[in-house]
Amino acid sequence: MEVRVEAGDITKSHADAIVVNLFEGVTVPGGATGAVDAALGGTISQLIGQGDIRGKSGEYTLIHTSGKIPSPRVLVVGLGKQSAFDVDAIRNLAAGLVRYLRKPGIKTVATIAHGAGIGGLDPAACAQAIAEGALLGEYRFTKHKSKGNDDLDVLDFFVILEAGAAKLAAMTAAADRGAILARATNFARDLANEPSNHLTPTDLATRAGEMSKNAGLEFEVLERADMERKGMGSLLSVAKGSAQPPKLVRISYRGRPGEGYDLAMVGKGITFDTGGISIKPAANMEAMKADMTGAASVIAAMQAVAALKPKSNIMAIAPCTENMPGGNASKPGDVVTAMNGRTIEIINTDAEGRLVLADGLCYAVELGATHIVDVATLTGAATHVLGDTAYAVMTNNDELAGRVEAAAVLSGEKTWRLPMWKEYDEYIKSDVADLKNSTTRGAGVIAAAKFLEPFVGDTPWVHLDIASVDMMASEKGWISKGASGYSVRTLINLALAMVGQGR
Predict the structure, then answer these.
(1) Helix (H) or strand (E) holding 408
(2) So what CATH class is 216-496?
(3) Catalytically annotated residue among 224, 230, 254, 280
(4) CA 503 to CA 293: how far, in whole Å?
(5) Is 230 labeled as catalytic in the residue annotation?
(6) Where do the domains of the chain lie?
(7) Is residue 91 flagged as an active site residue?
(8) CATH code given to domain 2-182
(9) In angstroms, how far is CA 316 from the centroid of its own chain?
(10) pLDDT in tens, 149-188
(11) Which end of the chain is more exposed for a tag (fewer CB within 10 A), N or C?
(12) Could you tell me which residues come within 8 angstroms of residue 27 by beta carbon, excluding any fewer than 6 positions away?
């Protein structure tokens, strides 16, 4: 689907469906909705008077125009209370519109810029939110169905019509930016939804390489022998049980002169997680194909970074492997050594994500990252703490965490910061090594972050545990069923905000 901004009058559009709106409590439609109402001979007003249109959030009223205007259909969408309407609501609204209008006979949709009229919101921000929401709402993963995308109802064009010529340039640029962010998110969704037999560590590295080549990005893969030379014993301990070779992916964008990186994004890339010797229960284990969502997020974010071209150096690192049981697999009680020389007692082989991230973080430090954010489906405890509404943020640097939180707000994602008090260091102390990879004292989300903290040293760092939101049981607003795409646009917005943050 193509999303674009055009000059035009919504009443004269020939699109298969046009979209106008109504706030809750409004009895006399104004603006574009009033113009369409007049062109229809007062049909919208009549439906309001009869109580069929109330303007409530999530309300859709489809009207057939019977030739009174060029478009055969008008959809009146409820915006809810004006006091509660914001850019996030616009993004969710656009996603819902696309799903609702995905019907036989509808290939083109024209809409007004919801929120930019009496809503009083910035027209460019509204255009970006509409583009993001429309493309995020369009998403479906049907690759492995016998009837593919060609057999499904799809929209070809989603057009934002704007009557004011002076606003067009800014709205067009904003909609283009929103499309870039949404397409990157959908790329991450594709990776996370892919069955693990179709997305081994090698496959994930290949797809990351293809994206990097197309986007003009630097690309590197460390193979097992490279990891051994660098002393990445923590990462390699997870890979020991799998027949699939591990891969460590690095993707780099350079938007300024000089060495180092203003931001490194490190993503957990466990392409399937059985739990290893500490094997998981069979129920719902199929969802563990998405245990590489962190890697998918940082890889996909780089696609958007390349397109948006910030004046900063940005890097993504994705340590990728399967976590499988086997004759050579790591065992509880084993001690391994990470790239920075720290020794780790493996208490639970199902706490493997932090083991691969440890060496990924060390590599980011070695390559000169001045700020690091890691993202991972790290702990089941995250869901117990936050449900499926928000993801957890932990940090050694309040300033960087504030930037991440601001980027999440801009993306319409909810986060919650958890403490990193020194008392939690005791939770990961080992009797036989420098630290252990699991605790029985509770605070599992924090303990996992505390495990990662020593591997960044003094570098400002934020840890995002997205295990609570990576996979969703149903669609809601911009969120898709299956892989949600959480954290991708937050990472992109953070990367765009990191201009001039190098040493």
Answers:
(1) helix 398-411
(2) alpha beta
(3) 280
(4) 30
(5) no
(6) 2-182, 216-496
(7) no
(8) 3.40.220.10
(9) 15
(10) 555 688 999 999 998 889 999 999 999 999 999 999 999 9
(11) C
(12) 48, 49
